[in-house]
Amino acid sequence: MAIELVIFDLDGTLVDSVGDITASVNHAITETVEGKTLSLDEVKRLIGGGVENLLLKAAGIEGGHDDVKKELLKGHFLSHYIQHIADKSRPYNNVVETLKTLAVMKKAVASNKPEALSKILLDKLSMLKYFDAVYGYDSCPEPKPSPVPIIKLMEELRTDVNQTIIIGDSGSGIEAGRAAGIKTVAVSYGYRAVDTLREADYIIDDMSEVIPIIKALS
Q: If you count DSSP H runs as helices and E runs as strands, how many of each does the chain have, helices first?
């Protein structure tokens, strides 16, 4: 059965967004807890579990119960990030060209970034038009690595497990895809070491390499 739906992770897969995320994380830390700011590499390792998880780890207050400080962190991060969401963020090499090549297929995003921010970023980069659906951390009762967002996307876009693949740069996307019963593709250029992606069915070094995989599965 031919592949009809391709689901993509966003940060680290479609778009290199770590520069803008780092700037906003450091702004939130400086304004809220006056803690140590983080490097690009340090933030890169924290991306993927949602905004709150990222901020709490970055600020060194994970596991704490200071709800006021948590809300302040999120507020400062979001207000800064919305204004600077695409200052440095850019699609990875051959991403847009691949999306154009896949024009006849249904395409969706399943990100652990909030849905609204995912759509804003894609729109700012003139990429939103390529997708039939965009899900974020808050689009479903359970985010990745739960299979719920993947299952919901298949239901919404009317495909089944034999017609769908997911492409991501982290274990959460691969785990979600495997749990949903679909084929998984990991990109080696994202925010996670390749050694952490060995559970994927395929590993690619450039987004264009997914084209022959899709053809082979069809």
A: 9, 8
